[in-house]
Structure formats: C-alpha cells, structure tokens
Amino acid sequence: MLRFFVGSLIGLALGLHATAVGASGLALREWSAAAQGSAYAGATAGADDITFMAFNPAGLTRHKGSQAALGAAYIAPHSEFSIDGATTVLTGTIGGGDGGEDGLPNTIAPSAYLSHQFSPRLFGGVSLTVPFGVLTEYDRDWVGRYHAIDSEIKTLDLNPVLAYKVTPNLSIGGGLRIMYAEGRMTNAVDFGTIDVASLAGAFGGTPTMDDGYADVKGDDIGFGFNFGMLYQVTPSTRVGAAYRSMVATDLEGDVRFNNGAVGDAISGTFGNFVNTGIVTEVNFPESVSFGIHHDVNPQWSVMAEAAWTRWSRLQEIRVKFDNPLQPDEVINGEWEDSWFLALGATYRHSDKLTARFGVAFDQTPVPHDRRTPRVPDQDRTWLSVGMQYALGNGSSLDFGYTHLFLPDTSIDLTVADPANTVRGNLSGSFSVDADVFIIQFKTNL
C-alpha cells in the first residue's frame, strides 16, 4: 500500500501545475477534499482526518495508528479578456488579439499524507502539497504581449511534523517545510520602439513590428517551518491556531532571447539582450490562521475560519542578470496583506455518508493599479459542497466541489510606471470564474 501511495504521488507531481485562481494571490488551498467541502471553514480546528495536518499539525493527535491519504484537485478556470486600448510610449497603437481562447489553463494540484502514532501522546506525519502556483498563457501576438505571454510558478512543499498531546484537552505540533519552487516568465520585446524612442531609429526599427522574445526561468529550494495548537474547550467545541512561516527563495536560472534582425543589431552594438544567467528573489509569505469547530448534535457540526497572509512581502519581482550590460527587469507589485474568512457545516447522514457545505470570502492582495495579465487577481467568493463515503476497514473516499465567483477584473497599466516604458500602456478587463473538483482516498495502514 505504501508503495502505491509513493508511486502515485510521483506520477502526479511530475505533471503538477497551479493556476492563478485557486486562491488569492499566488496561494493555493486545495490540500484536502474533506476541508474543501466546507470551504476550509474550521480547517485549523477541524482535524477530521490526517489531511488537516497541512493546516494545523497539532490535529494529528486525534488520529490513532498509521494512516495515509492521497488526493488531487482539478482546477478549471474560465477567463475572457476585453480590450479597451493599448499604445506604445510613442502613442502608437499596439495591435493584436485578446490573448486566445482562455489565458488560464486547467491544472492539477496533488497532495499526499502519511501519519503514525509513536506513543499515546506522540504522533508524527509528513505531507506533500502545492501551496503556491500561477499558470497563465496567452497567444504570442496578443495585445498585451509586451507585459506577459507565459507566467508560471510551481511549488512542492514537503512538511514533516510532530504532534504532542500535552493534556487530554491540549495538543501542540510543529514541523519543517522544505519547498521546491520553479518559475518561468516570457514576453515579447518591442525592439522597434526601443530603436525609435531611445536610438533615433538608428537600426531601422518600426514600433510593434520588430518584436523579439524573452524567456526567463529559474528554480530553488527554500526552507521554513510551521506550528500550531488545538484545544478542546468543551466536549463539543474545539479551537485551533496555526502559523506557517515565510519561505525565501532565490530562483536561479537563465534567460534566452530570440531578438530578430533589429534586436540582434541593438544587442550586437550595446551588448545587452544576450543569453545569460539570472536570479530573482521570491519570498513566499507567512500566514496565521484561527479556526473553531462545534458539534451541535451527533449529526450536525458548524465551523468557522479566519486566515491572514502577509502578501506585503511581495513588493516587486526583480530579475537580475549576470550580464552587467542588461538592466534589471522589474515587475512592481506593492501587494497588500489579505484575509480569508469562511463558514461551514457538516451533516453526518449515517455511518457511511457525510455531507459538507461552506462559503468563504477570499480577499485579493493585488492593488487595482498593480494588477497585470500575469496574475489577474480579484476578490473571490467560494461556494463549496462535499461528501465522504466510508468504504470500511478505515478507508474512505472524499469528494469536494467549489465554484469561485470573481467580479470583472480591470487592467490599467501605463508608461507613467517606468517599468512599463517599453511595455507600453494596456487597459482592459478580465471576466473570470472557476470550478474546482477534488478527490481524496484515505486508509489505515
């Protein structure tokens, strides 16, 4: 059984991606089908199964023996971009399409868990989840090509934890986070505008007609920690609190340029826009969460959750080039801290069947004037349902479904920001919503 779980996980992880709408900012919460059914309400205090260790490791003390769980979320966003206008710094019109059929592709986020009880008070476990991710893809000739074509962040977080039952009512837990992060960004380069605006047309360039292409990618492994507590206030009520630390990474890799004739002439003269190494610092933010779980009666439970994330860590993404003749590439973020709030309920219909319901508000960290096509983020409302079916002998199947409602998301990027001088002005709006399906299998070992 253990070999099956490890082999299945490797197969999922090799193809994992994440999209820009699974949660606000770069975050993903799709770690547990049981938790998603109630929109993650009470996830920090729930401890319904071992998958809740990702939210609060102290909850492991509620699960005896050895257990394993394997899950996968299928995130299916739907997006459409409406163009209001796009011009260069020289005020010429930038032509192109709306980015293609759907700039937010469907993606999969896997998860896996193992737990073991070492003694009546000491428990251990390990989880593998996808805590952050972005995937946006647009046509190479679209109207916003100088701002973004492809954007991708993939992460995989290995989190071994220990939990200890201090008293019959109080449990604590904590662990180490080992996170692999990989990033890639591509965009067109308007060498025609660079030539005319900065070099008086010395190389015969025509704005928007002599495009090049830049492809930046890098990866790194970062480290962090998490800890939490779970307290049984009364036989029917428990509360939890948890902290997940920041994970700092320096994504190292390279940039590849495909310049075209005008770009090659500029590069050959000034020594920039050549293939070289890169590094970019990305600080994945810390978060604090609080949850409460109350059993109303043997059939019904109600839950609530509040989580705060320090997105203000992401003030900018700065790509530094090994080539000293290549200026830094900067994406100004100025992101703000945000909150996630959820309410949910569980209904135990029978020993075999449990139903879950939940609603949540997920605040975006992205200010309106800093929103870009790479992460067209907006506040969202979650509406979730879920079901667990007990298979017997300690095994169960969980299913969850969430629909994410987002208002229209406007983009208004201008050359008043020095980082957009060559990228140009871009205005328009995204219409986005998403469906998230998740399945999870849990068993005793």
Structural notes for this entry:
By secondary structure, this protein is mainly beta. It has a single domain (2-444), classed as Porin (Beta Barrel). It has five helices and 20 strands. The chain has helices at 2-14, 33-36, 43-46, 191-199, 260-270, and strands spanning 66-87, 107-117, 122-129, 133-137, 150-165, 170-190, 211-234, 237-244, 247-258, 276-284, 287-295, 300-309, 316-321, 329-332, 338-348, 353-362, 380-392, 395-405, 409-413, 425-444. A 14-stranded antiparallel beta barrel has the order 1-2-3-5-6-7-8-11-12-15-16-17-18-20. A hairpin with a 2-residue loop joins strand 17 and strand 18 (395-405). The protein is elongated, with a radius of gyration of 24 Å. The chain starts with a helix and ends with a strand.
The helix-strand sequence is HHHEEEEEEHEEEHEEEEEEEEEEE
Give Rg in angstroms: 24 Å
CATH structural class: Mainly Beta
Largest beta-sheet characterization = 14 strands, antiparallel, barrel
Helix content: under 10%
Q: How many domains?
A: 1
Give the CATH topology: Porin
CATH architecture: Beta Barrel
Provide the CATH superfamily: Outer membrane protein transport protein (OMPP1/FadL/TodX)
Mean pLDDT across every amino acid position = 92
Q: Find the structural class using helix and strand composition.
A: mainly beta
By DSSP, the count of extended strands is: 20
Instruction: Give the count of helical stretches.
Output: 5
